[in-house]
Automatic annotation (TrEMBL):
<feature type="domain" description="HTH merR-type">
    <location>
        <begin position="7"/>
        <end position="75"/>
    </location>
</feature>
<dbReference type="InterPro" id="IPR047057">
    <property type="entry name" value="MerR_fam"/>
</dbReference>
<dbReference type="InterPro" id="IPR000551">
    <property type="entry name" value="MerR-type_HTH_dom"/>
</dbReference>
<dbReference type="InterPro" id="IPR009061">
    <property type="entry name" value="DNA-bd_dom_put_sf"/>
</dbReference>
<keyword id="KW-0804">Transcription</keyword>
<keyword id="KW-0805">Transcription regulation</keyword>
<protein>
    <submittedName>
        <fullName>Transcriptional regulator</fullName>
    </submittedName>
</protein>
<dbReference type="Pfam" id="PF13411">
    <property type="entry name" value="MerR_1"/>
</dbReference>
<dbReference type="GO" id="GO:0003700">
    <property type="term" value="F:DNA-binding transcription factor activity"/>
</dbReference>
<keyword id="KW-0238">DNA-binding</keyword>
<dbReference type="GO" id="GO:0003677">
    <property type="term" value="F:DNA binding"/>
</dbReference>
<keyword id="KW-0678">Repressor</keyword>
Length: 78
């Protein structure tokens, strides 16, 4: 994923990855990802978090289940 900005809203990232906002929030919960929020409480994805979401989505697109992706995550591959 080519990162151009220093922060992404959930809408921007979901459109870029072609997933729903719900999917991103689901990934946050499943992978225990902390997403900082702005003063209004809106999610602000850093480039690092955007890359992690991109990798998770790519693995899902390749047919891996969340359980298998978590194994990669626990090995610090994400």
């Amino acid at each position: 994923m080519e990162v151009m900005k220093d922060r992404y809203s959930i809408t921007e990232l979901s459109e870029y990855l072609n997933v729903t906002d719900h999917t991103l929030r689901y990934y946050e919960r499943e992978f225990n990802l902390y997403v900082p929020k702005d003063k209004r409480g809106r999610r602000c994805y850093t480039p690092e978090l955007a890359n992690i979401m991109y990798k998770i989505k790519a693995m899902r697109d390749d047919g891996l289940e969340i359980k298998a992706i978590k194994k990669f995550s626990s090995r610090k591959i994400l």
